[in-house]
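Holo prediction. Input below; ligand is magnesium ion.
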Amino acid sequence: MAFRIGQGYDVHRLCEGRRLVLCGAEIPFEMGLLGHSDADAAVHALMDAILGALALGDIGKLFPDSDPQYKDSDSMKLLERVIALMSERGFSLGNLDITIVVERPKLSPYIGLMRENLASAFGCDISRVSVKATTEEGLGLAGKGIAAHASVIIES
Ligand code: MG
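Structure of the complex:
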């Protein structure tokens, strides 16, 4: 069996008048993430991790934000396309681990749903999918944005 590893990172700014969507879960909050698509930073980091493992560049190359067809697009749909690229090359998910860096809101009530959404996109058991959240104790983005780190192992 061959293994490849990938990592991804993304950050989006919080602003008023936008939905907050992370790992495909809509989270009730007074602000949302600003971006060309639905700005799901966690799924963006994950897609970059998979593309990194495949050495296929990044999502900016695949889904340019200058292209109007990706405006407000559902990042889970884009993830399906990245998973298809992985499958076409004979790889499947070993496991993934995402850390979301967020001051507010508290994500713990939504972590289960996020893991289910991702497991269903990959068609894999939920035990392969880890989503965690942490704050930066007010020292980093401090509520101005939400960042996400993703690591994946894919196997053929
Ligand atoms: Mg992004």
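Residues 10, 12, 35, 41, 44 surround magnesium ion (CB under 6 Å). That is the main takeaway for now.
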